[in-house]
Design goal:
four-stranded antiparallel β-sheet, Double Stranded RNA Binding Domain, 2 helices, alpha+beta, disordered C terminus, elongated
Length: 99
């Protein structure tokens, strides 16, 4: 199953924060984007394991993901469309689990 995540710099915490979009309560942090990505992978795997143990169905990942947004942005740039996508879209990364 694939999940979307956001990784952003937290000025107040002075670290990168990673969050699973579909499960807003699952967050992790790291000194680098890569470390935050590794930590959120572990947090998501743990959450999926606990959900399975308790019989809780995990949230479903969206069918439209960042790839579509990236294609829209590339097309917008080719035709010089005047509206910018919000910058947080560029921070999305696909996250794959073994589930």
């Amino acid at each position: 199953m694939r999940y979307e995540l956001i990784i952003y710099w937290s000025k107040g915490d002075e670290c990168f924060i990673a969050q699973v979009v579909e499960w807003s309560g699952i967050m992790a942090h790291g000194d680098t984007r890569e470390e935050a990505a590794r930590q959120i992978q572990l947090a998501l795997e743990g959450a999926l394991e606990v959900a399975a143990e308790r019989g809780i169905k995990p949230p479903v990942a969206p069918t439209c993901h960042v790839g579509a947004l990236a294609k829209m942005e590339a097309r917008r740039r080719r035709i010089n469309f005047p509206v910018e996508l919000p910058t947080f879209f560029s921070a999305y990364s696909p996250l794959t689990t073994n589930q």
